[in-house]
Amino acid sequence: MTTPKEVIELVIKIRGDDVEKSKYEIQAELNDLHDIKLGYNTIQKIINRHIHLLNSQHKVNVKRHKRRTISRLKAEAVLRDKDLGSLVQIDTKHLYILGRRFYLFVAVDCKSRYGFIWAYKTGSSESAANFLTKVIDYFPFTITSVNTDNGSEYLLNFHKACEKLKVTHYFNHPHTPKMNGRAERLIQTVEYEYFNYQEDLIDDLDEINRRCEIFNDKYNNHRYHKAIHYQTPAKYVRNYQQQQKGEQLYVI
Fold it and tell me: E strands within the chain?
């Protein structure tokens, strides 16, 4: 192209700031604001030679957003250690026993590492919603928000349950499992420290969940966690709650 480099860069900047701006609008802006006369065919050639200036991907994103019925909120990092229940991470793991597939749901409080697991025959949003109610009943403190990935099990019934229970629902960025890193770590603990040793486990859901109850008790009341200075989650929660009550009494 014989177009001056500075003119090309200006076209790239104008289009980059607004990919919906047409070649005719760019032509008018160049003429009106910069006193540059440039043919719209030349402008289109510049756009075509820079993939990020094409609006095809933008149209795909717009269509995807139109299909969404749930706002995908992202949790701030500060929520992880703000308070008990300020952010509980939830995730799902396929659990294979004697050739049958079950769905293991896990939940962990980011601050105290208090955890809970439960198994289901299906990984549906109905199962996820039921799991949420179990977590709320099991945890010895109020849950104000949860964080999940973008899987279908965390839409529809699960999200409705969050709204009904007044629990804020946050989502990971797509393909970013590290945003749910503490739930991922709990899944590893379940596998490597517990289920891999259950050689007598049968493919019966009630029996599996009986083992889940044993794990929940061990994990929260007897397992010492490095992240909370080698305390059990249950002890950490009790100490924290006592400290909070003491601070309130002192203020009064």
Answer: 88-97, 100-109, 115-120, 145-148, 168-171
